[in-house]
């Protein structure tokens, strides 16, 4: 039987590739994000089993309103939505905006939705997979701190969901091409530099991360919970 899968940040990059992986397996997929045009275009390209849902996941009112559209039973929830706050000016106000923005966009987007749909997660089979970052482990200011907060929250979530047979895990990618995160910063020289500090000699692509997410969402991963799966080609170890 086809599963109901919800992928946040599913309009581009890693989220879109994750949604494509599930859709190709015949699952029913809802992709969630803030930009209507991006979501509608992605859903049309990914196929008839993919439904777009516009929602600002950092807004509790918007999340509450989205519950009417989300499936009554959710087999897989992929918390992928997130971004880096770009307010970089001097002074304490800019500092607060940067830290608060990173926390809201990377932590609250996952927490608000997951807590709102906890009662819809399928007992005995439900999977929650949250996409973090190597920044949580290597350190990267407010962005890294926000991603690290997801790790602590996931440990708590796994303990809460475990008695119902529902797993909760993290995938922490390293540098990944083909996303909006780096933009023009990921030029040829930067790709070469980052590839050189991995053990495999290359940076990742969205398919690498989607494969890790898909595994943790599979029936075969039913005895894995509360874990962090690093998906970085050895970048965390460095060379």
Which overall shape is indicated by the principal axes computed on the Cα atoms?
Answer: globular
Mean pLDDT: 92
Number of helical regions: 8
How far the N terminus sits from the C terminus, by CA atoms, comes to 45 Å
The total tally of domains equals 1
Q: Note the beta-strand portion.
A: 15-25%
CATH topology: Rossmann fold
So, the CATH homologous superfamily? NAD(P)-binding Rossmann-like Domain
Helix content: 40-55%
Set out the fold topology.
Layout (H helix, E strand, L loop, with lengths): L3 E5 L4 H12 L3 E6 L2 H11 L3 E5 L5 H7 L9 E4 L12 H25 L10 E5 L3 H4 L2 H21 L5 E7 L14 H9 L9 H11 L11 E4 L8
Parallel strand pairs: 1-2, 1-4, 2-3, 4-5, 5-6, 6-7
Tell me what the structure shows.
This protein has 8 helices and 7 strands, in the order βαβαβαβαβααβααβ. The mean pLDDT is 92. Strand 2, helix 2 and strand 3 (50-54) form a beta-alpha-beta unit. The protein is α/β, with parallel strands linked by helices. It has helices at 13-24, 36-46, 60-66, 92-116, 135-138, 141-161, 188-196, 206-216; strands at 4-8, 28-33, 50-54, 76-79, 127-131, 167-173, 228-231. The longest helix is centred in the middle third of the chain and has 25 residues, at 92-116. Helix content is 42%, strand content 15%. This is SDR family oxidoreductase. It holds the Pfam family adh_short_C2.
Concise synopsis of the structure shown:
By secondary structure, the chain is of the alpha/beta class. The chain has helices spanning 13-24, 36-46, 60-66, 92-116, 135-138, 141-161, 188-196, 206-216, and strands at 4-8, 28-33, 50-54, 76-79, 127-131, 167-173, 228-231.
